[in-house]
Amino acid sequence: MQKRTLGKSGLEVSAIGFGCMGMTGVYNAPADHQNMISLLRAAVDLGVTFFDTAEAYGPFANEELVGEALAPVRDQVVIATKFGFDIAPDGTRLGGTNSRPEHIREVAEASVRRLKRDAIDLFYQHRIDPAVPIEDVAGAVKDLIQQGKVKHFGLSEASAATIRYVVIAIEIPAELAIEEVRRGDLALWELAHTRERGDRWVEQGRTAVLKVPAKVIPAKAITSSIPAHPDFRRLGVANPEPFRFEERLLERLVGIR
After folding, report:
1. So what's the pLDDT on residue 210?
2. What is the β-pairing status of strands 150-156 and 120-125?
3. Annotated active-site residue in 27, 57, 124, 165
């Protein structure tokens, strides 16, 4: 498996990451727990070292699954998880976003326990919270980094303006990134699509991961069998056919391994 380095801090991950969301059910019923543990461990055997989860998946169940499955190989893998939705400690979804510093700290503590790790490798803000300045968010995560509870900070689905703040990795929906580059919104960052080095966006030494969730494999499941499936991720996305882009991206990713 080829490797990629995120940012300038030496965080090395496999070129193909593993999106774990669908394993515990979001657009589908949860899969068999033991089968998913076996699948995650098989992915490690195949060279995958980068796994993506979030407190919102479940809620909590996905982190618990990933933590249990990868505990025996915790020193061999990088786990990214996310904060940013308003979810109570008992799992009740309160609706909307919540990136208040005190909430970020609570999520970090809980995620570390569920993932069975000493620290979170990569901590993403899942969605931008319009009620909390990004400086406050970054400051809260910086404090967690200084305390040894988080190693790296990232953003998910952030705008060009928000990206200006120093982060390690930026998770951008592929279709959104392309639309923004076409409009010139990201010109300041001199983003370039480097086909010869795999599908990724390179910005002044940083690597932005184009996350393709495991649930879209095979991609025909999205583009053919459920074309009318309501999907909240489509909200606000310029490209009317985002999953067709993911299908083409998947076809190209085959050669990376």
Report:
1. 39
2. parallel
3. 57
Residue 102: how many other CB atoms lie within 10 Å = 9
Exposure of 207 in the CB half-sphere (CA atoms within 13 A):
21
- Quote the pTM value: 0.73
Decide if pLDDT at 186 tops 90. no
Task: Report the C-alpha gap between 80 and 53 in whole angstroms.
Answer: 6
pLDDT at residue 26 in the model? 82
Distance, in Å, from the CA atom of 72 to the CA atom of 111, rounded to the nearest integer, reads 18
Considering the four listed CATH numbers 3.40.50.1950, 3.20.20.100, 3.30.420.40, 3.40.630.10, the one that applies to the domain covering 3-253 is: 3.20.20.100
Proportion of the chain above pLDDT 90, given as a percent: 48
- Residue 165 annotated among the catalytic residues of the structure: no
